[in-house]
Amino acid sequence: MLGGLIAVAACAGWITPIDPFAISGHALRAPDALHVFGTDDLGRDVFAGVVHGTSVSLLVGFAAAALSAAVGIAVGGLAGLGGRADLALMRFTEFAQALPRFFLVITLVSLFGGRLSFIVAALGLTAWPSTARIFRAQVSTLMNRDFAAASYAAGARRLGILVRHVVPLALPVLAAQIAFQAGGAILAEAGLSFLGLGDPTVMSWGAQLGSAQRFVREAWWMSVFPGVGITITVLACNLLSDAVGARTATRVSRQL
């Protein structure tokens, strides 16, 4: 499913050469042979908007998840080494996790603008606490294993053990977390665009849903097709996360 969505995003210009912002027909035209997903209230082709919106959702989702993972790895890795850094970083993580994330993102986007790059940064920099806690638990467990003790006895530094040995072993768990957070970031971006806080220069599924809310009865296709796109994409991310997590659990059980 995710591979198909990536293919659609990569070939959007070939699938539909229509500009998603261009008026290409009569307003509120039902799906037909010319406009397979119909047109919206401005006469724009809904199919073109859904296809071009795929790349925006995938970009926001995985870029925000990657940024969140980078911050979470740094914070969780240093905290997992123990000491005073662990206490300070975990208290800071708990404080950040207690903040209402979506309302914080809404406030930031309202104050500084809805550019796509800023939305990615806002989503990524507010989602790292869960990754940090998961990675800290992994580091704390792996640093007490025999291979870590042997490396430390051979003269290796704890930070070097973390970078060379612990991080590669914890990557499968982080991959599952990244896939899960990508789905959450896609939903958050859709919510921002639905509220009119998204980037107006790009076509987004959330923006399509926002313009469709006044025409749910008259033009069902305006909300159904972007909604199906969001559902499929988030479902694909969650299934990928579950699959990676199950594979990691099987491998760990075999090692034990």
Question: What's this, in brief?
Answer:
With 256 residues, the chain is an all-alpha fold.
Label the structural class.
mainly alpha
Q: Note the total helix count.
A: 11
The run of helices and strands is HHHHHHHHHHH
Fourth-level CATH superfamily: MetI-like
- The rounded Rg comes to 22 Å
CATH class: Mainly Alpha
Assembly classification: single chain
CATH architecture descriptor: Orthogonal Bundle
What is the count of distinct domains? 1
Description:
- The mean pLDDT is 90.
- This protein is elongated.
- The protein starts with a helix and ends with a helix.
- Helix 9 runs parallel beside helix 10.
- The chain has a single domain, classed as Orthogonal Bundle (MetI-like fold), CATH 1.10.3720.10.
- It has eleven helices and no strands.
- It is mostly helical and 256 residues long.
For this entry, give a set of tags.
256 residues; mainly alpha; MetI-like fold; 11 helices
Q: Topology of this protein?
A:
Blueprint: H1 2-10, H2 12-15, H3 46-80, H4 84-98, H5 101-112, H6 116-124, H7 128-142, H8 146-153, H9 158-194, H10 205-212, H11 221-255
Helix pairs in contact: 1-3, 3-4, 3-6, 3-7, 3-9, 3-11, 4-7, 5-6, 7-9, 9-10, 9-11, 10-11
